[in-house]
Structure formats: structure tokens, C-alpha cells
Write a structure and sequence with these properties.
Blueprint lengths: L1 E2 L2 E2 L5 E3 L8 H9 L5 E2 L3 E2 H5 L3 H5 L10 E6 L3 H12 L1 H5 L6 E6 L4 H4 L11 H14 L4 E6 L9 H10 L4 E5 L14 H8 L7 E4 L5 H11 L3 E4 L9 H11 L8 H26 L2 H6 L8 H7 L5 H15 L16
Parallel strand pairs: 3-11, 4-6, 5-6, 6-7, 7-8, 8-9, 9-10, 10-11
Antiparallel strand pairs: 1-2
């Protein structure tokens, strides 16, 4: 699969952007386990235009993350154009690697975004969505991609026609989450319409499927049954970033890897914590690791007291010592992967 001039190989696996989850330290771990393409947390176009500190900080990427896309969202064409140009110039503005592509978020369903017409709120205004896309494509030299949903609700699943219009506006790839905005993350993702988009003889850009890819078997079905060019994985990576390695092994060999035991998860948690401390400093690095540290060990018996330590300790040495204790007590156990499914993905 190729996006613009970015070669991703056959059946690539992409990490979905998730607010407050897919920061640089988590992306570092996912890349280590074989994510072929990653994106920043989604960035408000208004925030970039106003030079908001939090938005600007999200522009920072690193060479080892490449290829990486910077994802922006908003509903004002002029702000989206300015934000796309800033994303293209991220290396000059914020330092680091910069962007290999610009991705437009037309898929986030959370109320504070969709209700004001951004994210999947754009599904109610397809003409405006296409116009914003066209203007962003014309404004930058980098490949532009879009992530969206099937439609606003059950009665307005417009994705098959919309996909053609977005392609005609000049995008280089399209990612489709197999739910409507009204579904949020409830029910099951419907991949049949994703398949219809891919089957459309007018479509010539890569189509990437997203939604409920929670196992190697489901990823293989997405490729084999629905014909997508790539698979994007979101909430199933949370507490389970090694899912990329598991899926790649299954696609290549047809065999399932054994579950990762607790000792290996502790080693992973230490690497993740060290990267978070390196990139964000002690206070923020620890605070933002808490959600990950507890989830890596979800499913362990008699873990409540230890989990409480992992989410309350503020001293790095004490955290590392607690992780050593986890390895010593539960090291050979291999609980089910600690996925949680209340994490919004963009």
C-alpha cells in the first residue's frame, strides 16, 4: 500500500489517533511492536491558529516514528487551511521530525467536538466536508488523508458516495470507521459498507478499515473478506500495544503467538515509563503513564492494592520498585490482554 510517496508494504497496520493515549511515548512502544504508520493525537485547528501551547506541543514528532501523520480537526475552512500549513511546517515550528502527511479528522464522535460541527459532526454537512478537504489539499504539498465514519446515523450512511467525493477532492487515502456518529463506540462495527467502498470501481486510492480489530483473526478477516488495503487499530492497543506483533505474525505464518507473560509486560512498562519521563519530565511523565501502567496488568488476580500504588505513586524509583514486585510475584502469569474500550479514538 502506498500513500502518496509513502510506501507501507503489503497489509499495513496503522495506529489510530486517540486523545490522551497516543502521545509520543505510547507511539514509541507501538512502533517497537511493528506499527507501520502512526498519527499524532488529534490537534484543534483553532488551537494551532491561536498558538495554544497544548496544540503546538502535539506537533512534535521524532525520526523513529516515521512515517507519521499529523491529524487536525475543525469546521472552519480558513482555520483548517492554516492548521494544515502549520502541520506541514511542524519541523520548523516545533522541532523534531515533522509530518509525512496531513490527516483530517472527520470521525471523532465525542460530544464536545461533534456537536459543534467538527470531527464526525461534519457528516451532517458533506458539502462543507468536501470543500474543507479540497482547500486543505490545495494548500499543502504533503499527502492529505481523511478519517471518517459511515454517516451521522442509521438513516444517513453516506460513506459510499462520500468516499468518491473525498477522493475527487484530492486525498491520497481514506480511513473509515465502521460505525455512525450516533453509535459512538456501541454495538459492532459494520464492515460491509467499508467493503463496498473498496469494491467501488471508481475508487483508486487506498481504503483503510477501522473498528473492532481486537485480534489477529479479525485483522485477517478484514483483509481477506473486505479487501481493505490497510487496517487501523485503536482501542485494542490500549494495554496491549504488542497486538501489532501478534497480528503481523499471524498474517505471515497463520499461527498465533502465545500471550505475553507478566515479566515481559513489566519490562515493557519500564521502557514505556522511561520514555515518558524522558519526553515529559517527572511530574507529567508519571501522571500520563498511570492509565497505561494499570492497564498493562489488567486481569491479574489479587492486584487491587498493587494497582492502587501504580496509579498514585509520584516517585519514579518507587514506581520501578513496584514494577519489580509485580514481576516477582506474577512473573509467569499470562492474563488476557488488558484492553479497555472507553477510550475515544479520533
Amino acid at each position: 500500500m502506498k500513500i502518496g510517496n509513502i510506501e507501507l508494504g503489503e497489509r499495513p497496520l496503522l495506529l489510530a489517533p486517540m486523545e490522551d493515549v497516543t502521545d509520543a511515548s505510547f507511539r514509541f512502544i507501538c512502533k517497537e511492536f511493528g506499527a507501520d504508520m502512526m498519527y499524532t493525537e488529534f490537534i484543534s485547528s483553532d488551537g494551532l491558529v491561536r498558538d495554544a501551547k497544548k496544540s503546538l506541543a502535539k506537533l512534535v514528532t521524532y525520526d523513529y516514528e516515521a512515517p507519521i501523520g499529523i491529524q487536525i480537526y475543525g469546521n472552519i475552512p480558513e482555520a483548517m487551511v492554516d492548521a494544515a500549513r502549520m502541520a506541514e511546517q511542524a519541523a520548523e515550528i516545533a522541532g523534531g521530525h515533522g509530518a509525512d502527511l496531513v490527516d483530517i479528522n472527520f470521525g471523532c464522535p465525542v460530544n464536545k467536538i461533534a456537536r459543534r460541527g467538527a470531527g464526525s459532526g461534519m457528516m451532517r454537512e458533506p458539502d462543507r466536508m468536501v470543500e474543507i478537504t479540497r482547500r486543505v489539499v490545495e494548500a499543502v504539498r504533503l499527502p492529505v488523508t481523511v478519517k471518517t465514519r459511515l454517516g451521522w446515523d442509521e438513516d444517513s450512511k453516506i460513506i459510499v458516495e462520500l468516499a468518491e467525493r473525498l477522493q475527487d477532492a484530492g486525498i491520497s487515502a481514506l480511513t473509515i470507521h465502521g460505525r455512525t456518529r450516533s453509535q459512538m463506540y456501541t454495538g459492532q462495527a459494520d464492515w460491509t459498507l467499508i467493503g463496498k467502498v473498496k469494491e467501488n470501481p471508481r475508487m483508486h486510492i487506498p481504503v483503510i478499515g477501522n473498528g473492532d480489530i481486537t485480534s489477529p483473526e479479525k485483522a485477517k478477516e478484514a483483509f481477506d473478506r473486505y479487501g481493505v488495503d490497510g487496517v487501523m487499530i485503536g482501542r485494542a492497543t490500549y494495554g496491549h500495544p504488542w497486538i501489532f506483533r501478534e497480528i503481523r505474525h499471524y498474517l505471515d505464518t497463520g499461527e498465533l503467538l502465545p500471550p505475553m507473560n507478566v515479566s515481559d509486560r513489566v519490562a515493557l512498562a519500564k521502557r514505556h515509563l522511561a520514555k515518558s519521563l524522558e519526553l515529559k519530565g517527572e511530574k507529567a511523565g508519571i501522571l500520563e503513564m498511570r492509565r497505561h501502567l494499570s492497564c498493562y496488568f489488567k486481569g491479574l488476580p489479587d492486584f487491587k492494592e498493587t494497582r492502587l500504588k501504580l496509579v498514585t505513586l509520584t516517585d519514579p524509583d518507587e514506581l520501578y520498585a513496584t514494577l519489580d514486585y509485580v514481576a516477582g510475584r506474577w512473573g509467569d502469569a499470562a492474563p488476557a490482554a488488558g484492553n479497555v474500550y472507553d477510550i475515544p479514538s479520533a
